[in-house]
Design a protein that fits this description.
Chains: A mainly alpha, B mainly alpha, C mainly alpha
Order of helices and strands of chain B: HHH
Number of strands of chain C: 0
Distance between the termini of chain C: 54 Å
Shape of chain C: globular
Oligomer: heterotrimer
Number of domains of chain B: 1
Number of helices of chain C: 12
Structural class of chain C: mainly alpha
Number of strands of chain B: 0
Number of helices of chain B: 3
CATH class of chain B: Mainly Alpha
Number of domains of chain C: 2
């Protein structure tokens, strides 16, 4: 029997979550051990897939369309790896951030969230994905409200309503697809799909639901209050991983099922993406609080991912590769940014940008973390963000889409503006000096290492792209690239 | 089952009613009820549109999906109600701050 | 399943209209209390709809969980809202009558678009697609049970059910994490002799009904979720009559084990089948029935406990300071 790495990715965090719930005094230790298991399992799965290609597993021994299949190709693997890496960073950070009762609540919820992410990235069944989306959403909401306080609770409530609405729209799409084509497996649906009004309606519903969950403009209203007011490690996970999950589902449904029969909708995605990049970046510039700035930056960065949709038809590999790379880099960089912000918050007791009192000298590790993460967000070489934007530009220019290229460039400039604005303030002295609280070393290093990872992605691009090719996730789109 | 289509249409109308109320009504308890109504509408559509061939028993997969959905819905409702109560404790109103 | 009679059509039309009317009234009535009661009535009528749609397992689940327990949760939350002093200018019984957020034109448009789109696609549909019913029927003999819904839930798509029990547990953990002492159950009056006698009578009866639903689910409508809901209902009655509340608000390790039992059984079964059969949740056909029953039994206890705990106490160590 082959080594059960994929199954471990799902079962281990579930078992860990239940154990942490049963023995709250050991919750932290259980959480960290489970995280280690997850990192090992992802590495194991990666090696396994590098040797044998796509990973498939029939749960219960029943083949689709009757049963559910676990499925991993290059795209799933990279997102699983992102989950493991960001998860590890957040876990190390959270180990020092949460104490006592909060820790007893955090670890089971966090492990459930990881289980949901892993199950989602490994799933190929649209109803199974619904269940994982709900698991993910509820865990994320509970984590958002963990600190208490009216801002966090209000953000969590808005998030809950939005995510439940998104799930219902998605489930309605599942109902329609089953009604029209009698199957729940993405592979089977891909074979049976035909361009009919039913499919257009389903794309509208599912697309709306998933865009709401991914906070694509104009359905992004819930994200800034939720991500900005959640505890720092939770914000890192939300912006880094959770929004990528619904994006992943949308990407899969588009690439395998909808994109081939409803290609016209890609223009809409592109437009929304462009607006998100510009509007989100401008909003980020206007913020007085650092956490809100970082949250609006997420809104903008998500826009980049949608810019690739109109490019996919003609430059398949380049465009979709760009999406994957941007998603990965953003996961690491944005998580690092939120962790760094959490450090600043712990240090000075506030996150007002104008009052960052000489933190460059007093918290050098954290400032470096923010700076490196900013490099990737801006898309400066050498970083993962640069590789992603480069691929995007390549695809856009190859098709003569000057508008998209312009948006990418302008977005990068705006990102530079808000990143440098923050960094500038870290060198200056605040009008009223603040008392500083010490920040544990683990928290600073977690932020820095994640940021370093985002930059490192730029150096290992050939390796990452070769892993992405496993299983040819974009097979139907590669004609033009 | 041609009666199914009647219920599926009812489900569509329920979904719409719930969606409108969710967006427009400010009180959180009513929003939660609206989400439940939308869920029920979706479940009706799942089962109402299901077809087996002539003479076969009804399709069990949508029914299983709906049972799963009902359990998920009650879980979400419980979480939402607790969050609403906690928010009302903090702010004195059971409404989203800023509405 | 023969031809639809005129009477059948009329009945379904009546039920359908009733559902729409009840939902509309529930969402638009000024009194929140009326809204909840109307919603419970909606749920009960929906149960009837499920019966008409040949879905008795769903009907049972809807009655017990969708209408019953959800109604209890909503009523409890409403009572707690009034009691906690959430003040409103117009009084504690209603939100602002006729309150509308300014987004209503957008909402109306979106709603209309959705409903019209759905109706259109429903009416113009493919004539040839059938669902997976034939597949289920074909594989039913080796699934270990003869109720097709149970076969789908516990065998063919058991992975979904595994995750779903996780969702239920997660909701409980999440609800408890928002802070101390959210308790829906009102302060009980001293239980009179009638209530005590009733409770004593109800306990064995409810356990019997629950066990029956669990057992019969293998070959007739029923199953773990319905059985668990009956246990939860019993628990709600006991709590409301003042008995046994403490164990839910300050759960020791034993009660927490009960919460975890269902999802843990699934995870252990998944791991065991992976180790022995090479596949997750692949039951050896000879023993499938027994294994499914074991899973369902664990799930029943867990579901009952979690649903009760969601109603009756969502904090650790509320009064006696025992930590989580």
């Amino acid at each position: 029997m082959e080594a059960p790495w994929a199954q471990a990715l799902i079962l281990a965090p579930l078992a860990g979550a239940m154990s942490a719930f049963l023995w709250p005094h050991r919750a932290r230790a259980i959480g960290l051990v489970t995280m280690l298991l997850l990192v090992m399992s992802v590495a194991g799965l990666g090696i396994q897939m590098a040797r044998f290609g796509i990973y498939r597993h029939l749960v219960g021994g029943w083949a689709p369309p009757l049963g559910i299949e676990l499925y991993a190709d290059g795209l799933s693997l990279l997102l699983l790896a992102a989950t493991a890496v960001v998860g590890a960073g957040v876990s190390v950070y959270a180990a020092d951030y949460f104490r006592g009762h909060d820790a007893a609540h955090f670890w089971p919820l966090w492990l459930f969230l990881l289980a949901a992410l892993d199950a989602l990235f490994l799933s190929r069944d649209i109803f199974n994905i619904y269940v994982t989306l709900e698991l993910l959403g509820l865990a994320a909401v509970a984590l958002t409200g963990l600190g208490g306080g009216r801002d966090a609770l209000g953000g969590a409530m808005r998030y809950l309503l939005a995510t439940l609405l998104g799930s219902l729209l998605y489930l309605l799409g599942v109902a329609m697809l089953y009604h029209g084509f009698g199957a729940l497996d993405i592979g089977v649906l891909a074979l049976r799909i035909r361009p009919t009004p039913l499919v257009w309606a389903t794309l509208g519903l599912m697309g709306a639901g998933l865009c709401l969950k991914t906070a694509v403009f104009p359905l992004h209203f819930w994200l800034p209050p939720a991500h900005a007011n959640a505890p720092a490690p939770v914000s890192a996970a939300l912006s880094g991983l959770v929004v990528k999950a619904s994006l992943y589902v949308l990407l899969r449904m588009w690439i395998d099922v909808f994109g081939t029969v409803a290609a016209g909708a890609s223009v809409l995605f592109g437009v929304l993406g462009a607006v998100a990049v510009l509007w989100g970046s401008l909003q980020a510039l206007r913020q007085a609080r650092l956490k809100l700035l970082v949250a609006y930056s997420t809104v903008a960065q998500i826009g980049y991912l949608f810019l690739a949709f109109p490019l996919g038809a003609a430059s398949g590999w380049t465009a979709w590769g760009a999406v994957a790379y941007l998603a990965l880099s953003h996961a690491l960089a944005k998580a690092a940014m939120f962790l760094a912000t959490g450090n600043l918050l712990r240090f000075g007791g506030h996150d007002r940008i104008a009052d960052l009192d000489r933190v460059a000298q007093r918290l050098p590790l954290t400032t470096w973390a923010f700076a490196l993460a900013g490099v990737s967000i801006m898309g400066l070489p050498p970083s993962g963000g640069f590789v992603g934007k480069w691929l995007l530009l390549q695809a856009a220019l190859a098709q003569g889409r000057w508008g998209i290229a312009a948006v990418v460039v302008v977005g990068g400039l705006l990102a530079a503006a808000y990143v440098f604005r923050v960094l500038g303030h870290t060198f200056t002295q605040a009008p009223v000096p603040h008392e500083a609280r010490p920040v544990p070393a683990h928290m600073q290093w977690a932020a820095l290492l994640l940021a370093g990872g985002a930059v490192l992605l730029g150096f290992i691009a050939p390796f990452v792209l070769s892993m992405l090719r496993i299983g040819h996730p974009f097979a139907m789109w590669e004609a033009g690239s | 089952m041609t009666a199914g289509i009647v219920y599926a249409l009812v489900g569509a109308v329920l979904f719409g009613l719930g969606l409108y109320a969710l967006i427009v009504r400010p009180h959180l308890l009513r929003k939660i009820i609206a989400l439940n109504v939308m869920g029920s509408g979706t479940f009706l559509m799942l089962v109402g549109t299901g077809r087996s061939g002539v003479g076969l028993p009804p399709d069990a997969v949508p029914q299983a999906m709906v049972i799963t959905g009902i359990v998920v819905a009650v879980s979400a409702t419980a979480l939402a109600l607790t969050l609403m109560l906690r928010l009302a404790d903090e702010t004195g109103r059971a409404e989203l701050p800023g509405d | 399943m023969g031809a639809m009679t005129l009477l059948g059509w009329a009945f379904d039309g009546l039920v359908g209209t009733g559902l729409v009317w009840l939902a509309w009234r529930a969402l638009s009535s000024p009194s929140l209390y009326a809204a909840v009661v109307l919603f419970v009535a909606f749920g009960l009528l929906l149960t009837l709809a499920w019966v008409r749609l040949n879905a008795p397992d769903v009907a049972l689940a809807e009655a017990a969980i969708g209408a019953g327990l959800t109604g209890a949760l909503l009523l409890g939350a409403l009572a707690r809202l009034r009691g906690s002093g959430a003040r409103k200018a117009s009084g504690a019984h209603a939100d602002r009558p006729g309150a509308r957020i300014s987004a209503w034109p957008l909402a109306a448009t979106a709603t209309l678009a959705v409903v019209c789109g759905l109706a259109a696609t429903l009416i113009f549909r493919e004539p040839t697609t059938v669902g997976l019913g034939a597949e289920v029927t074909r594989n039913l003999p080796v699934s270990g049970v003869s109720n097709p819904v149970t076969a789908v839930l516990l065998n063919f798509r058991g992975y979904d059910t595994l995750l779903e029990t996780g969702v239920l547990l997660l909701a409980l953990i999440g609800a408890r994490s928002f802070g101390p002492a959210i308790d829906y159950a009102p302060e009980p009056a001293p239980a009179g002799p009638v209530l005590e006698a009733l409770a004593r009578f109800l306990v064995p009866l409810a356990i019997l009904v629950s066990g029956y639903l669990l057992w019969v689910g293998a070959y007739a409508p029923g199953g773990a979720f319905q059985a668990g809901a009956v246990l939860a209902a019993l628990g709600v009655v006991l709590v409301l009559s003042g008995q046994g509340r403490g164990r839910m608000t300050a759960p020791g390790l034993a009660v927490r084990f009960l919460f975890v039992l269902g999802p843990a059984a699934f995870v252990i079964m998944a791991a065991a089948t992976l180790a022995l059969q090479g596949r997750l949740l692949e039951y050896p056909p000879a023993h499938a029935g027994v294994l499914i029953l074991v899973l369902e039994a664990a799930a029943t206890l867990s579901i009952g406990a979690i649903l009760l705990a969601l109603f009756a106490g969502s904090s650790f160590g509320k009064d006696n300071g025992t930590g989580p």
